[in-house]
Amino acid sequence: MMTNENGNYTGKVAFVTGAANGIGRATALAFAREGANVVVADISEQGNQETVRMIEKLGKKAIAVRCDVTQTEDVKAALAKTIEAFGRLDFAFNNAGIEPKKPAPTAEYEEEEWNRIVDTNLRGVFLCMKYEIPLILKQGGGAIVNTSSGAGIIGIKGSPAYTAAKHGVIGLTKSAALDYAAQNIRVNAVCPGYINTPMMDRFTGGTSEGRAKVIAEEPIGRMGKSEEIAEAVIWLCSDGAAFVIGHAMVIDGGQTVQ
């Protein structure tokens, strides 16, 4: 686990969406280990509470807030609870996302499914940043990391909505990065490959055959770990990444190397 020599996490506050499991949970725990107070935000109240308990076992402070990132009022309420509990916001990891129900070519893709995927995976990131940024500005700056995907840098057959949304996250990240770089808010993105998470279990059908097919696409010969993405997020929020602006960091075991 990275240690933060600059101490820029102690007493600071991190807001993490999709924190009930997987990459979000691992990153919430990583922020806590570095000394930050953590707001655990997700639609799964049970998962939220479990993540908070894990953080509290580390002797750190956290609160759970139910938040559907597609709903403006949910996002605003979650951030209001953040300020009520901790008085500030310094870091945000906008990670909440969903996978497609099934693959389909573009002309056969259901409009309802398109809206569902884009609403969560792209609009949700926009809504979070829209209401996080004014709070971070009040502290004189901070850092935001958004979750894109390997699907944000290459096309994925049969997945037009997910691919478009994740490409959109990178574009949105770059635009916001330019908007606020001079005001000391650094905005970057991570692009995970196949990571061993509950979402990946759903994607593979939870079968050994499904997992083997996914692993076969990874040059490194395995799936990634949630903690490996968390390490990247922590670094991107640290003083060590002070000159990193609008970057989409690919963490995918070589899957998208051309």
How is this structure best described in words?
With about 260 residues, the chain is α/β, with parallel strands linked by helices. The chain has a single domain (about 15-195, about 225-250), classed as Rossmann fold (3-Layer(aba) Sandwich), CATH 3.40.50. The protein is about 45% helix and about 15% strand. It is built from 8 helices and 7 strands; from the N terminus they run βαβαβαβαβαβαααβ. It has a 7-stranded parallel β-sheet, sandwiched between helices. Strand 2, helix 2 and strand 3 form a beta-alpha-beta unit. Helix 1 crosses helix 8. The longest helix is centred in the middle third of the chain and has 28 residues, at about 110-140. The protein is globular and about 45 Å long. The two termini are about 30 Å apart. About 45% of the residues are buried. The model is unreliable at about 1-5 (pLDDT under 50).
Keywords:
Rossmann fold, 258 residues, 45% helix, alpha/beta
**Major beta sheet summary:** 7 strands, parallel
Widest sheet, order of strands? 3-2-1-4-5-6-7
Strand/helix succession: EHEHEHEHEHEHHHE
Number of separate helices: 8
> How far apart are the termini?
30 Å
Q: Per DSSP, what share of the residues sits in E-state strands of 2 or more residues?
A: 5-15%
Let me know the CATH homologous superfamily. Answer: NAD(P)-binding Rossmann-like Domain
What is the secondary structure topology, with strand pairs?
Blueprint: E1 13-17, H1 22-33, E2 37-42, H2 45-57, E3 62-66, H3 72-86, E4 91-94, H4 111-138, E5 142-147, H5 160-180, E6 185-192, H6 198-204, H7 208-216, H8 226-237, E7 248-251
Parallel strand pairs: 1-2, 1-4, 2-3, 4-5, 5-6, 6-7
